[in-house]
Design goal:
The complex is a heterodimer of chains A (about 260) and B (about 525). Chain A is about 25% helix and about 15% strand. By secondary structure, chain A is an alpha/beta fold. Chain A has a domain of about 130 residues: Rossmann fold (3-Layer(aba) Sandwich). In chain A, the strands form three sheets. A five-stranded parallel β-sheet of chain A has the order 7-6-8-9-10, sandwiched between helices. Chain A is built from eight helices and ten strands. Chain B has about 525 residues and is an alpha+beta fold. Chain B folds into two domains: about 120 residues, Beta Polymerase, domain 2 (2-Layer Sandwich); about 300 residues, Cytochrome-c3 Hydrogenase, chain B (Orthogonal Bundle), CATH 1.10.645.10. In chain B, the strands form five sheets. A five-stranded mixed β-sheet of chain B has the order 1-2-5-4-3. Chain B has a three-stranded antiparallel β-sheet with strand order 8-9-10. In chain B, helix 6 packs antiparallel against helix 7 and helix 8 runs antiparallel to helix 15. Classes of the chains: A alpha/beta (about 260), B alpha+beta (about 525). Chains A and B meet through helix 1, strand 6, helix 5 and helix 6 of A and helix 5, helix 6, helix 9 and helix 18 of B.
Chain lengths: ~260, ~525
């Protein structure tokens, strides 16, 4: 009898998958904050109140230079937002923050107040991967938070499969790697071997503050300060952990399946 | 000495028996008794507490005190659940002869932790049954990262690749099946080497610490307020539990009591963490035996909780909420309404999920008598949390040494004795139901008032223990403060470290295709173990 009950249960549930990206993205709650924006023009002269409060040393201010906030290192604790009296650092509530170049995550210079969102792969790669992208996930020294919110993309609410994106069991079946974690010395070799096992052409996606820059474990001899120290990275998705929406946006952006910059 | 009355007779008995060999006893907290003893006494003292007083060896850790006292200290943390307190035995090890007699043969729960001390401090474990490397893999150079003279900015020489020798298992028809460190799903790394004869598993060797990040060393390099964010990243699915345990330790060192509202809000977060993990695990156990409908239902409920988490704290995993002295964010009326609504809705829908799984004979067939961990082995290995309680090992810090708001709420601790996957499944299901009750009571009794007290600089040279019953089991943070609002040492004890060896026992005689579900029924953290 349980088979019938299971089917009935399944029918009662109906379709649970969100309409995004055809419909609007689910809104982030106010407290989330989303990507940061840095208007260094608003900085008080000589003020560096935001620098010491940052737990991952993502903010620097050299004499005579505008403040520089590295969103790749940021764990989005919002301590700098609270510590900034003239509101030079603000939250945008925008979930989109994936970039192609590491430098595109550094905020603060005039014209570089926000992240420079990722451009799509070139025509040739898009033809190869645009409608079918198989990724091998390598967890290389994080805390399992990025892994958890990547896993979530496979569940019914998000249903990554509808975009032709799938996580596969072997690097040999994959078009690329999705790396989380700061790359511990104990995982360095395994990551290299996994990368080598992916047939070219291949792409590498670094997810989370650890994989981008070492995150909370930055500058420790027992980690490599992120994936780029070991393999070339094509897409950086910041967060600690990144919101599943941020990861999804990054993947779709890379495949040229969302607009470069929509009004939020 | 302001000692809990239930610990007093234990202290009296020990001082009577061991006399002057216990050099000093003090209790910085009423339920936290420190015994400074001579090195030779370590084994006898621990064995007495373990056997006679039913203590659980909850932690073994070291500290480099060579600069001031020319010794390393080794601490044994014993949890005395019936006496509602902890005993910490401290012994000195001379700097010029860093050797320690292993207690693993008498108390198997010490196994991995002793090896970790050997790797990270270079203190040789004499008489350890398996003294091989664990935290630092075999290809590491001869460095001892937790010694004070190991510079955090030192350059390590290049590693020369794998040299680990697994134990050979030989015999006609015996095969070895290596799995990992990179796993097939989106899972943290670890290596499992199965030895099988036909289908049944004869022997399982675990090799962990692939994600060892030297977190305990990092704690020593950061100002205390930044350490909280690091504590949140010890194990992603236990962000609240680890951060709260760390905050407890700091608050005790500073002699500060967080306000009632903060304690209540922390309890809400701890229970939300328990709920989303337990429900996800129930789903994941179903998926490992191909019951996908239940899995999808569970993941939908988990997602529902994560969205509310985000609404409450700005983070799906409730990060950013903890701070020493209280919590960072208050919940307004709207947020509390959303929480109350979540509990009502979850209860109804979780009931649905329970019925769906209870009525499925195919599911029960796969879960019952699979991956049995007997009560005796659970006690020997000191298995904690849900895995312990599914094997008749009845302890829960929320009840035995209530922290935060748990002394203000009524709940029961589900304990089963079968020790199979079904029991670990059922313990989770029953705890979910208890969590609903706890959340409702906390919301009904939610005190008004401030959410944090200012902490200022934490005085130097204080020791303190922070503890929290996380969803997976008990979490300890032991700190020793240093001048300048910093830490001289922070020992982090995740329940997974204690429970991994139990997996090797539970899988014996089972078939490899059942390993995923057995593993999932424990659902241990690699990152929490490896740190």
């Amino acid at each position: 009898m349980f088979a019938l009950e299971t089917i009935a249960h399944r029918l009662r549930q109906g379709c649970q998958t969100m309409s995004y990206p055809d419909g609007p993205a689910p809104a982030l709650p106010d407290r989330h904050g989303g990507a940061l924006r840095v208007d260094s023009a608003r900085c008080a002269a000589g003020c560096d109140a935001c620098v010491p409060v940052c737990p991952t040393r993502a903010i620097t201010r050299l004499p005579g230079q505008p403040v520089a906030l590295d969103l790749g290192r940021c764990i989005f604790c919002s301590a700098c937002v609270e510590a900034c009296p003239p509101h030079a650092i603000t939250q945008t509530n925008d979930h989109r923050m994936a970039v192609r170049g590491r430098g595109d995550l550094v905020l603060g210079k005039p014209g570089e107040e926000e992240v420079r969102l990722a451009a799509a792969l070139d025509e040739k790669l898009r033809k190869l991967f645009g409608r079918s992208l198989r990724l091998r996930q390598v967890s290389a020294g994080g805390c399992n938070a990025c892994e958890a919110d990547t896993n979530v993309l496979g569940t019914i609410g998000w249903d990554l499969g509808r975009f032709g994106i799938q996580f596969v069991a072997s690097p040999r079946h994959a078009d690329g790697l999705l790396i989380t974690g700061a790359v511990s010395r104990n995982m360095e070799l395994a990551l290299k071997k996994s990368y080598d096992a992916v047939p070219p052409p291949k792409i590498v996606i670094a997810v989370g503050a650890c994989a981008i820059a070492g995150g909370p474990f930055v500058d420790h001899p027992q980690v490599c300060n992120g994936a780029a120290a070991v393999v070339p990275v094509d897409l950086f998705i910041p967060g600690c952990p990144p919101h599943p929406l941020t990861i999804l946006d990054g993947l779709l952006r890379l495949l040229g399946r969302v607009e470069r910059r929509l009004p939020p | 000495m302001n000692l809990l009355p239930s610990l007093r007779p234990i202290l009296d008995e020990l001082t009577q028996r061991f006399g002057a060999q216990i050099e000093h006893a003090h209790a910085p907290q009423p339920n936290e008794l420190y015994l400074h003893a001579k090195l030779e006494l370590a084994g006898a003292l621990c064995s007495t507490l373990y056997r006679k007083h039913q203590g659980r060896l909850a932690g073994v850790f070291a500290e480099d005190a060579r600069a001031g006292q020319n010794v390393f200290f080794v601490y044994y943390l014993l949890a005395l659940d019936a006496a509602h307190g902890f005993v910490l035995v401290r012994v000195p090890i001379p700097a010029d002869q860093p050797e320690l007699n292993s207690v693993t043969n008498a108390i198997p729960a010490a196994n991995w932790q002793e090896r970790e001390i050997q790797d990270l401090f270079g203190i040789r474990l004499v008489g350890h049954p398996n003294p091989r490397r664990c935290a630092l893999h075999d290809d590491w150079p001869e460095v001892y990262p937790l010694r004070k003279d190991f510079d955090l900015h030192s350059q390590l020489p290049p590693f020369m690749g794998e040299r680990h020798k697994f134990r050979e298992v030989e015999g006609e028809g015996v095969f070895q099946v290596p799995v990992g460190p990179v796993h097939a799903g989106i899972i943290e790394p670890g290596h499992f080497l199965f030895s099988v004869a036909g289908e049944p598993v004869l022997y399982l060797q675990l090799r962990m610490f692939y994600v060892h990040k030297g977190i305990e060393k990092l704690f020593e390099s950061l100002p205390i307020p930044h350490c909280v964010r690091l504590a949140e990243s010890i194990s992603g699915d236990s962000s609240v539990a680890h951060a709260t345990a760390f905050c407890h330790a700091v608050e005790r060192a500073a002699g500060v009591e967080p306000p009632p509202r903060a304690r209540a809000l922390r309890t809400i977060c701890l229970e939300l963490e328990r709920l989303y993990n337990h429900i996800a695990d129930i789903g994941a156990i179903c998926t490992d035996v191909a019951f996908v409908t239940a899995h999808m239902h569970a993941m939908r409920l988990k997602e529902r909780i994560l969205r509310v988490n985000e609404e409450l704290t700005g983070n799906r995993l409730l990060r950013g909420m903890a701070c020493p002295g209280g919590v960072r964010f208050d919940f307004d009326a709207g947020q509390l309404r959303a929480l109350a609504q979540l509990v009502d809705e979850l209860e109804r829908q979780f009931n649905d999920l329970s019925e769906l799984t209870r009525g499925n004979s195919g599911l029960r067939d796969r879960l019952e008598t699979t991956g049995v961990l007997t009560p005796k082995v659970a006690r020997d290995l000191g298995v904690v949390g849900i895995a312990g309680r599914a094997s008749g090992f009845d302890h829960d810090l929320r009840r035995d040494v209530p922290h935060d708001f748990y002394d203000q709420v009524q709940f029961t601790v589900p304990v089963l004795t079968g020790g199979d996957v079904q029991c670990r499944f059922d313990v989770r299901r029953d705890e979910v139901v208890q969590s609903f009750a706890i959340l409702r009571q906390v919301m009904a009794k939610l005190p008004a008032g401030p959410i944090a007290v200012p902490l200022g600089e934490v005085p130097a040279d204080r020791v303190a223990l922070g503890y929290v019953e996380g969803w997976r089991g008990e979490i300890f943070h032991w700190i020793h403060t240093a001048p300048g609002n910093r830490l001289a040492r922070c020992k982090v004890k995740d329940p997974s470290l204690q429970n991994w060896p139990a997996l090797s026992e539970a899988i014996l005689g089972n078939i490899i295709p059942d390993f995923p579900v057995v593993n999932k029924s424990f659902n241990l953290s690699y990152s929490g173990t490896d740190r």
